[in-house]
Write a structure and sequence with these properties.
nucleus; Zn2Cys6_DnaBD; CD2-Gal4; DNA-binding transcription factor activity, RNA polymerase II-specific; about 675 residues; 8 strands; two-stranded antiparallel ribbon; metal-binding
């Protein structure tokens, strides 16, 4: 006769409940009629779960009431807690490494294929694998681990679609964006029964994408020449070294001539004496003064808003006159828009600047045309304008996950010289540092959206790009390397362009996180095992095995920089809250992945401070409060989950103290 283990009393009952827990899984019932919203609008319903396509685009809950069973009550379509295996089918590959989303189909006949189970997309990092890829299985393993016992419906992660109340205003975000990362946070929140936070991101799209302009635009008067000089000086000191699209002396001279013309003619309105030839100069001047006014005030100003609105009012004129002056104005306009949280508008504007640059040949080194005469200063300016466009677009490509209009193979211009002697003031030296980093940013974006032939090629390319980031950090002067930021009691060091150093450091850390965050998203065991499988063939295997630590350390560095800047009241149009938000999301992901670790407690304090810092900056920029609520909701849920995990560990510890000597917990 089998001997029964000794009874442990109430403590043993609690322990058994904690150690062995069987979750009941409800059977999925497919609804075979149109949902209430589709019937109301009299449109065709595809009867998909958890939501039909129409409700998904409108962001509405998909509820169905069966008219044949009026007493049955409404039915909300939900996905079964147990995910089924799906394999991606390689679709047609688009040119230049940019690919559309993979179409998914069931790997075998299952109940899901008969009950309308929705086709599940792959994750950000695993969507480009072949059908037999290890990462495809790792994605399903991630869902098995983090969705067990929950009914959280996850949406596509390689394509993020945001809509407003109608299904017509659609905005697309790529998987390298913040919202793509938030989908993976939803997986871990769903494990604990919390609602997803990623749908709240759509409330921030209107602020980022739309710019409200008056129907009857007016041109503001130029201020006194002394005020103009102050605004332009602030711009040239803070922003121009990284985006030197203007010739300092020529721009100041043109502004002075325009001011003297106004003093001589004294018109009632500025447009009375101006022609379309003055439009590029005016748009450039208003953009510069908008940036300079905000830089001087250390915050968003009404004066800066007025100048920005006036500069954007010339947008149609700039496009209608596709020449060098228009490109300069559009680049400056995109910088001003990004500094105010209008990243979507900045992406549109810099895209138009790139198109005009291509049309006037800024991307080509016109050697045959100029070989009979010495190089002119205008040629150097054209080169600086092009590389400013290049760097701006590569940065926005990585942050938004949208395609780029510039490919490295399209231009034959030599990269800016990295030596300080290339320019008397060292300004081209700063541009060279920034452009060399932006080139790596672009390669990371293409790597994320490309289709590798195998898991080995993906890991190999990831290691090579990580090596490129390390080479960049080693090649720049010591004062510009990430981690070399100098803070003193009197403020940041005046010996170095502090804001430029901090900007480059933030972009470097952001690139590290974007490149290596698969190590934190995917199950660590599967990720490490695949690296060890190619141990003898991967030259960077040690760095790849440290990817998780690299991501977390980069996130901590970003948060520390953001907190230091906030404490000192340092503001710049270059320093947006996007990197801090990315670091906040990564810290949350790390805490939720391993809430039992002791480091989770210290990371919680850093995560809390980072989320509060993001809230401060987004309110200052005028973001929608519903979007800002993402941070508060995430902060509350992470705290609750960590607290509940601590209470559970304490209960287990107390229960184990009552176990008889030699009794194993699994008995």
């Amino acid at each position: 006769m089998r001997r029964r283990p000794p009874s442990l009393g109430p403590a043993g009952d609690r322990l058994s409940c904690l150690v062995v827990k069987i979750r009941s899984r409800s059977k999925l019932h497919r609804v075979s009629i149109a949902c209430n919203q589709c019937r109301k609008r009299k449109v065709r319903c595809d009867v998909q779960t958890p939501r039909c396509q129409n409700c998904l685009l409108r962001g509405q809950e998909c509820v169905t009431t069966d008219p044949r069973r009026p007493n049955g009550g409404p039915v909300v379509r939900q996905r079964c807690s147990s995910p089924y295996r799906y394999q991606p089918v390689r679709g047609p590959t688009r040119g230049r490494g940019r690919n559309g989303p993979d179409q998914m189909q069931p790997s075998q006949s299952s109940p899901a294929s008969q009950t309308g189970e929705p086709r599940t997309p792959s994750t950000v990092e695993t969507k480009n694998f072949k059908c037999d890829s290890w990462a495809t299985g790792a994605h399903h393993e991630t869902k098995d681990v983090h969705l067990a016992g929950s009914c959280v419906a996850t949406e596509q992660t390689d394509i993020i679609i945001n809509t407003d109340e109608s299904s017509h205003n659609i905005k697309y975000m790529g998987s390298s964006s913040l919202q793509g990362l938030a989908v993976f946070i939803d997986l871990r929140l769903g494990r604990h029964g919390y609602e997803p936070i990623s749908p709240l991101f759509r409330y921030g799209m209107r602020h980022a994408e739309d710019l409200h302009l008056p129907l009857n635009a007016s041109i503001p008067d130029l201020p006194a020449l002394e005020v103009v000089d102050n605004y332009t000086s602030a711009f040239f000191n803070a922003v121009w070294p990284l985006f030197p699209v203007l010739d300092m002396d020529a721009f100041r001279s043109e502004l002075k001539d325009l001011h003297e013309l106004l003093q001589l003619r004294k018109p009632e309105r500025l447009e009375e004496i101006l022609s379309t030839e003055h439009v590029p100069l005016l748009a450039t001047a208003f953009s510069v003064m908008s940036i300079g006014a905000d830089e001087m005030a250390g915050d968003i100003t009404e004066v800066g808003s007025n100048y920005l609105t006036a500069a954007y009012g010339f947008f149609a004129h700039l496009v209608a006159s596709p020449h060098l002056g228009s490109v300069q104005a559009l680049v400056l306009l995109s910088i001003a828009l990004r500094g105010r949280g209008k990243d979507g508008q900045a992406w549109h504007t810099i895209g138009q600047a790139v198109r005009i640059s291509h049309s006037i040949g800024l991307h080509r080194h016109l050697r045959p045309h100029y070989e009979q005469r010495p190089e002119r200063p205008d040629d150097q300016l054209r080169s600086r304008v092009w590389w400013s466009c290049y760097a701006m677009e590569k940065m926005l490509q990585l942050e938004t996950g949208r395609p780029a209009g510039i490919m490295d193979g399209d231009n034959d211009l030599p990269f800016p010289d990295l030596s300080p002697e290339s320019d008397a003031g060292g300004n081209v030296h700063y541009l060279a540092i920034w452009v060399s980093l932006a080139r790596v940013l672009g390669r990371i974006s293409e790597h994320i959206y490309g289709k590798p032939d195998s898991a080995f090629s993906l890991l190999y390319e990831t290691g090579k790009l990580d090596e490129c980031l390390q080479d960049w950090a080693a090649s720049v002067p010591e004062g510009f390397r990430p981690g070399s930021e100098i803070f003193t009691d009197q403020g940041m060091s005046s010996a170095l362009p502090d804001r430029i150093v901090i900007f480059c450091s933030l972009q470097f850390y952001q690139a590290q996180i974007t490149l290596l965050r698969a190590s934190l998203i995917l199950p660590s065991r599967s990720y490490d095992m695949k690296i060890m499988e190619f141990e003898t063939s991967l030259p960077s295997r040690h760095r790849l095995l440290q990817s998780r630590s690299t991501c977390i350390n980069a996130s901590r560095s970003i948060v520390n920089l953001g907190l230091e800047l906030l404490d000192r009241g340092t503001y710049s149009q270059l320093l947006t809250p996007t990197p801090v938000f990315l670091a906040t999301a990564m810290l949350a992901l790390n805490i939720l992945s391993s809430p039992q670790k002791r480091t989770a407690r210290s990371d919680l304090e850093l995560f809390t401070a980072a989320s509060e810092t993001c809230e401060h900056h987004y309110r200052r920029l005028g973001q929608d409060e519903r979007f800002i609520g993402v941070l508060a909701a995430l902060r509350t849920r992470v705290r609750d989950i960590l607290k509940a995990n601590g209470d559970t560990n304490l209960t287990v510890f107390r229960a184990l103290t009552f176990l008889p000597h030699g009794f194993h917990v699994l008995n």
